[in-house]
Amino acid sequence: MSAEDSTERLRRLKTEALQAGGPERLAARRKRGACTARERVLGLVDEGTFVELDVFVPGVVTGHGKVDGRDVYVFSQDGEVAEESLDDAFARKMVKVMDLAMKNGAPVVGLYDAGRARPSAARGSGPLGSYAELFFRNVMASGLVPQIAAVLGPCSGTAAYSPALMDVTVMVKGSSHLFLGDPLMAVEGEEAEIAFEELGGARTHSEQSGVAHLAVDDELECL
To answer: 149 has which bridge partners?
Structure first.
């Protein structure tokens, strides 16, 4: 492969990474009033300050920027593509950002939206091991650097642990959910929607379980 071919391939891969899962998924996200993972990051940090890391690994956007002039490390999960990309590399991108935050003494912000993706033994031991590494970072960072979680979509199974380990967890009413078991496995139809809210909705976790410290009305308010 020539240098020109390699450059063109890199351009194509970067374009695909920036497409947020493709036009159909982007349209579905817009319909329900949700931003893309990258848009969420850009809405959080000061304009022009975000430096993205490891752009070619899909499923999560990671990097660093500034919020009110202060250095911040951030990762933003993309629920539209996470199910296809929930592998070792996906989790290690978040681990890398946590390590950089601790090394540089800067806050870390996690924007969580795992969709229906759930790390499991069926995917091999890699993802589970890397998620364990992420939880370990959550524990090691406690008291060392501020950890802030914004839950912006459904997170079930293993994906629900990390936001619960953060110092401050914010959830969005009606669209963010945290639960270890998926209610769709037990009930169907309208009952499933009720189960989503009762088992893991923003109200449940902010008023009953104590996992969430704040429940807000929409993504913009959350960010």
So the answer is: 110, 169
Question: What are the phi and psi torsion angles at 45 (to 5°)?
Answer: -90, 165
> What distance in Å separates the CA atoms of residue 130 and residue 124, rounded to the nearest whole number?
11
pLDDT exceeds cutoff 80 at 10: no
- Looking at the predicted structure, is the pLDDT value of residue 23 above 70? no
The DSSP call for residue 208 is I
Query: Coil, strand, or helix at residue 67?
Result: strand
Domain ranges across the chain: 3-222
pLDDT for 94-136, tens place per residue? 999 999 999 999 999 999 998 655 555 445 555 677 788 999 9
Answer whether 133's CB lies under 8 Å from 96's CB: no
What element of type H or E holds 123? Answer: none
**Residue among 53, 196, 185, 60 at smallest CA distance from 127:** 60
In this structure, which topology does domain 3-222 adopt according to CATH?
Answer: 2-enoyl-CoA Hydratase; Chain A, domain 1 (3.90.226)
Task: Give me 18's structure tokens.
Answer: 């920036």
- SS3 (DSSP) at 223: coil
Going by C-alpha positions, the residue among 129, 112, 136, 115 that lies closest to residue 205 is 112
pLDDT at 185 over 90: no
Beta carbons of 18 and 9 less than 8 angstroms apart: no
What predicted TM-score, i.e. pTM, was given to this entire model?
Answer: 0.83
Rounded distance, CA 42 to CA 61, Å?
11
Position 170 confidence tier, pLDDT thresholds 50, 70, 90: very high
